[in-house]
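Per-residue structure
===
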Amino acid sequence: MTGPIHLDDRYDEPDQLRDQLRRILRHRALIALGLVLGLLGGLALAEYRAHTYTATGEVLVRSTADPFGAVGVSADNQVSMTTEQQVATSAEVARRVARALRLPESEAGGLASRLRVTNPMKSRVLRFEFTAGSPRRAAEGANAFAEAYLTDRKSRNDAAVRRATDALGQQIRVLNQDLAEEKLEQKDAKTAAQSQLYTLQKRVLDIKSRDTDAGDVVRRATAPHLPVGPGLRVLLALGLVCGLLLGLVLAWLRSALDSRIRSVGELRGALHAPVLGILPDDEDGHGELLKVGRTGGARTEAFRALAFRLRKTDGPSGPGQVLVVAPRDADAAEEVAANLAAALAEYGGEVLLVDADSDASGLSDRLPLMPYEAPTLEEAFLPSGSVLVEAEVSGRLAFRSGGGIGAHTRSSLSTEAHRLRPGVESTTVVVTGPFLTHADALAVAQRVDGVVLVVGLGTTRQDDLRQVQELVDCSGGRLLGTVLDAARPRRRLRLPGRRPKYRPATHPAAPMELPAQDGTFSVSRR
């Protein structure tokens, strides 16, 4: 063979991105599953959000967290909004809310978990967002938290006032006691004490006169009209997008883990052998096994092209003895072998199709064999135990069931298969059971001139191909090439009303060879 045969493969593209997309799109069921899951997730989220409402209230925090010690400090710097946010979500505020709503204090933690307090940038406003199962309860919760926070903050301010005035009052009492007991004898000391007393009393009055309110409610929460979150349409659209992404990821994972042959490129990469042909789907087929010489169509022409390429592998004389076998599918190998033999017979030579399957695959029941009769002068040159196949070809096509690979059959394949009539091209096409499950296939591969491997598109795994290649190489056989069957898997059809078929069991099988005398016979009878 001079080199690999380059085919125009519609299942393979050099562009890696397009090839990857094609691999993903093969698993449309997973993509559809992802879309369905995304749609159901969107519906579930919409159903969950349909019973969830959020009400919002806003509180303006007064500019004095501790108004009694903040002298010369701007109002904005007197309040730490981060601290106020933490106080607003504290357990003490939640307990105040529980008491205001007349709920047990044990539920204060649950109320706090449904509250969200935020602070808009560059402002002294706290925004209370409360979520509940009904609009009314949401509004009541937001307002209750706002009021509880203001009450708690006012109590803290009042406590700061009491602490400051109590400390000043203690100093005032000490000064009054000193002045009353006339402990200060010097006039200057007495004057200073009176001045200090006046200052302390004035500071107490200033502290008591300050406003200790915590803040103001600038927006009360009202019952919301719509549930929280996006609407049904938005959630469904979001679910479809997420489902599509999920389906694509699942399809990509499935394609990455799938080791089945999907293209000519994968087939060449697995075997490093030429691809002799691609068999398209039998769109015009009628369920018959033999198509060459009986029916037309794209698949029939593909068999003829396969025979032409196979004849060129070893020169004009053809390949000699060829084993057609599949890794695990016997039906695919039988169809290719039968049609390959008929296509080779169209070149005018002698072709013998041998079924060497020891399990009796029933190939004779599926071929249009001529009824057995006493051999005429022309038919006397048929190999012993064989019968003609009814096909419109210019050469001679015979079929024989070998009944397994016995010692006599192995000897005939190795020593007697080349006893041909001078000047007549002769080819033997042997078909056996699956290569990886039948030992007969390996025995035949050691004695034929070459092996043609039938690979099913989307059904044959790369590991099986590598195993077949190793077995053929170890046995000393020769792998001529592969045939990629792109047809969908079909059930075996049996057509009623056929003529009686020849049974090899009634005539003992002789060595598998073509006639060695001169003579011709017709391959088609009507």
Residues 406-422, 491-526 have pLDDT under 50 and may be disordered.
